[in-house]
Structures are given as structure tokens and as C-alpha cells.
């Protein structure tokens, strides 16, 4: 069986697999930034295909998109122009000091920091990049959701989609690695006429209290930490929805201000 990352290596396929025609993630980020008075200079950290960065640019912000994947960045420059796109590792980067009014980190990108050292690297880099009073806005899976819950882990899930006349199927298995505090995913892709492709990835399972502690340790004042609504909650966020006062659901939304 071949191994690789089918979607990261093929950004057009990624967008076909995860369509966001309403640009919910970017609109949620924009509404959050506006509500908290963030200035125009935004770093989209882990920007992926550039869809959200380009929408925020179109909404009037000065956006820099940063990602580690050259394939994603090439796609973003070609298909979602407007922002400046740079290659950077979110676990430790230097894009200047006090350059940005806000850092946006969507779709669990922050959880690719698997160790405490990597999380320190991200938060320290974000603090350095932000001006005093700047915002860090993040959206991710909630580690606390998996305390006593197993519905996402009980059995593999499967699905398929068709893109340009070709059908792609996948079987996904999740498991919790408690010692490493990671949610590990194994996904096997099949496509017409091709051998199966195995993809393995993992996300850090961060808990709300951990986030509070880490943010404070890096000079951030926590403004809001809530489980919904957001762009990937059910039901999804809609313009004008107030944030919840709980942090128990599958998704976690963080708004913090650099002191």
C-alpha cells in the first residue's frame, strides 16, 4: 500500500473534498476580528489552499497567508490571489516583530503542535508577530470532548466523492493515544484504477485549562474560550450568533489578546 497525503499534495482535490461555498470559516473569523476591534493586518497561519485568506483580503484586510506546504502555497497564489503568501512552520516562525494586528489559526492547524515545546514555539512566535493588543483567533477540535466519549472512535467511517469524473473513496479510523495526548487518524483512500493510499496524521488533544495556562504563560489575556457556534459546529455559526458559555463540545474557539 502506498503512503502519502492525497489532499495536501493535491490542493484542488482538497477543496473538492471540503467545499466551503459560503466561506463560513473566513466569515466567522472576520466577524470575530470586527467584534473585538482588530486592525487590518492579519496573518492566516496554516492558510492551506488560501480560500479563507483571499476572502479576508476581499473583505478589506491586509492578509499574509503562511503554510508549510509548497503545493498549497502554489495553489493559493494561482487560485486565490490577493494576500501575500509565505512558507513558514507554525511551530516556530519569524515574520517580523509587531507586524500584525491579528493572527488567525483555523481548522485545528494549531493542533499540529504535538509537544509542549512545539506549542511554546507557536505561541511565542505569534506573540512576537503581533503588536501589543493584537488578537489571536483559533478554532480547533476540543480535547475535553473525548473525556468519556467514544462515538467518534467506536468504528471506522467511510465516504466517497466524485471530482472530474473520478470517484474517491475513503475509510477513516480514529484512536486516542493517551500517552502522547494525540488523536491519531488513519485514512485509506481508493480511487478508480489506482492502488490504495494510506494517510496517517495526528492532532494534539488540548484541554481548555491547558490552553488557558499556555496562553497566559506566553503573555496573552484570554478574552473568550467557547465550544460554539463556529464554522464547523452543528448547527454551524450564523452572522449575529453569540458565543456559548460552555467549552464541552467537539470544537473549541479561542480569542486571546497579546498583552
TrEMBL record:
Protein name as annotated: Methyltransferase domain-containing protein
CDD domains: AdoMet_MTases
InterPro entries cross-referenced by the UniProt entry: Methyltransf_25, Methyltransf_Superfamily, SAM-dependent_MTases_sf
Native source organism of the sequence: Streptomyces hiroshimensis
Ranges of residues in domain Methyltransferase: 42-134
Source taxon at top rank: Bacteria
